[in-house]
Amino acid sequence: NPGDARVAVEVQQDWSLVDEVRLWSRRFWVRLCDVHRGNGCLRALPGSHLFNRGVRGHGQGFAHPGLADLIQERYLVDVPMAAGQAFVSTQSLIHASPPNDSPDVRVAACALAVPAESVLWFVGVERGGSEVGVYAVDDEFYLSHHFGAVPPVERRLALVERAPEPLDLSRFAAPGTP
């Protein structure tokens, strides 16, 4: 239940919103209250924004679920923030957050920026989960579509096989290691 503040956000990479092989999207996460581990601050894997920049979509889940617990336990770092601070990242950053164990509501404002020359994408899992559909959408799509709804087939740019990049954790330093 996304409305339940006590629910943790599992290890994930967000959906591809542009062709990340050529371009970068930017996500701005502005905290409107102080956040720390006890109330569910963001936890991130430094350097992971360079990993698995292919097509990722709604309903796909984390590309390497067998490594999620290890990443959570050994590789994520807390990103505590004061109200008014912003965290800027890409959709490809591996991240999670613990549940909000405080009595206070965690509030944030989010924004996304994509290069003007990019085609904005919606990527959704199709055909029994073995392929993802890449659709061209406009800015209004993300303001008005029903969560998980797929755009009309006429907007589909490609249907591609799900092929996440292998994850070699030796590329990342566990916190507290040289």
Question: What this model shows, in words?
Answer:
By secondary structure, this protein is mainly beta. It contains two helices and ten strands; from the N terminus they run βββαββββββαβ. The protein has helices spanning 68-75, 141-144; strands at 9-12, 26-31, 42-44, 77-79, 86-89, 95-97, 108-113, 121-126, 131-136, 156-161. Strand 8 (121-126) and strand 9 form a beta hairpin. The protein is globular and about 45 Å long. The model has no long low-confidence stretch (mean pLDDT 88).
Q: What's the SSE pattern?
A: EEEHEEEEEEHE
- Percent strand equals 25-35%
Which structural class matches the secondary elements? Answer: mainly beta
Q: Biggest sheet: strands, sense, closure?
A: 4 strands, antiparallel
Shape estimate: globular
Q: Can you give the helix content as a percent range?
A: under 10%
Q: Treating each run of at least 4 consecutive H or I residues as one helix, how many helices?
A: 2
Low-pLDDT stretches are none
Strand order of the largest sheet: 1-6-3-4
pLDDT average, as an integer? 88
- The count of DSSP E runs of length 2 or more, i.e. the number of strands, is 10
Distance between the ends: 39 Å
Radius of gyration: 17 Å
